[in-house]
């Protein structure tokens, strides 16, 4: 498992997140960070972190930058960055809008979230 610090998630001056670990390890790394730093469990649970992981991977798989997705959503880029870092939760309507902006059926995106949560809690 990757070992990271809070510094890994600090944005650069252009407010574009820097990730110092491979994509496939991000979920495990975020889980490790949550356990190593005093963070509220409800906002940073493994399930919540998995949602952010799925949303980030879906955006990347769609070939969109955070800025492009933010424009499609009618939100600032910081909104997308905060969601993907787990600093901000999104509701079901925002989840559907996110999926639509990526050209993915919300039910398919939700299925990925559900599958991952079942795997992490099993």
Automatic annotation (TrEMBL):
Superkingdom of origin organism: Bacteria
Record-linked SMART domains: HTH_XRE (SM00530)
Domain HTH cro/C1-type: 55-109
Signal peptide: none
InterPro entries per record: Cro/C1-type_HTH, Lambda_DNA-bd_dom_sf
Name this protein carries in UniProt: Helix-turn-helix domain-containing protein
